[in-house]
Protein 1
Amino acid sequence: GAVVSQHPSWVICKSGTSVKIECRSLDFQATTMFWYRQFPKQSLMLMATSNEGSKATYEQGVEKDKFLINHASLTLSTLTVTSAHPEDSSFYICSAPRPGINEKLFFGSGTQLSVL
Amino acid sequence: TQLLEQSPQFLSIQEGENLTVYCNSSSVFSSLQWYRQEPGEGPVLLVTVVTGGEVKKLKRLTFQFGDARKDSSLHITAAQPGDTGLYLCAGGRGKTSGSRLTFGEGTQLTVNP
């Protein structure tokens, strides 16, 4: 079963509204989570690293005020796309490393955002 | 700057054929991971290689990490339609998977029955 849950799977919103995407680690604690953006049949582009208890680290060119990240607990990180515009339409994916002897990075199932 | 170059970007083959996907970089990575992603889903880890020259096999898939830990390849034998998907390589520089990964551009593989 999934170890990282991402919600919602898809969302359609009007231009100018804000959309919140949740990423939860289901059976482990994640002090770090990663948020990516992906265009059709293209690779993942890292947007930011979400850090529990501190500010997120954004990649160059990613607007902090546009993509708000909150890592409120050890199992939850949220990405809020503020004042969404059609160019923000994309597939957003989160990931979290599960600690342990065989540490692995697990991905959420992604969120398809369509801004009208 | 794209640090990992993946080739080919698109590949369409017939069932039963063999194929190789390459992942190259001028940088050294502490680990190299291969993922497979299906439309509308997140990537799923196939394998992690950490030692230069390492070869790992997963059924019909063979993964190799270059001696200098700058490149990797994925070879699929007797491809099947179920192998269709986006294959991504990702390089890590830290000691754990919690470290930031650099993804390749991806290879979209289509296996026709």
Note: The longest strand of chain A covers residues 90-98.
Protein 2
Amino acid sequence: KQEVTQIPAALSVPEGENLVLNCSFTDSAIYNLQWFRQDPGKGLTSLLLIQSSQREQTSGRLNASLDKSSGRSTLYIAASQPGDSATYLCAVRPASGGSYIPTFGRGTSLIVHP
Amino acid sequence: DAGVIQSPRHEVTEMGQEVTLRCKPISGHDYLFWYRQTMMRGLELLIYFNNNVPIDDSGMPEDRFSAKMPNASFSTLKIQPSEPRDSAVYFCASSLSRSEAFFGQGTRLTVV
């Protein structure tokens, strides 16, 4: 059974810092990995989707990398801003077995203070 | 497309009452997922549909929970009777095959 772990569970940084959020998974046979952002009281917003054949994806100040063999993905946020404060979740989809269910981590709660 | 639409956004009900949550997926998406989110357990998959057919409902906690998808543009999640421990945020999500999943804004359910 796939297990997804996100470390740290919470992070508080001053504005302007570059930071890295980690996501690890136990079964490397994945189809893709997706990073989400969740603001308090809101739904999940998709940030980046990385296919298993890709090594990284970029969107603005966000860069997500994938090392499938080691079961790890990182989300890099450059020059963090208070508006980046949210919970960040990663989810992986299996490569086979007919099940397309994404497995989610518990998320990293990020606070960027001015 | 307006994205995944859920209603209501908030629901407060008394224990024992029936609760119905509604979801309209993104047009053209063939997968629909119902999740429940709590502080204690995080995001839990309750059930998912493929082309309107329920594929895996092993996450449905009890027989009090049921879900239907009568057509490609509508799904419901029903709890009858509701209990205080059902209080959570319920999310609906849809995707096209195994591609990017899109979530609705959720329904915050409070059972008193």
Note: Chain B has a mean pLDDT of 94.
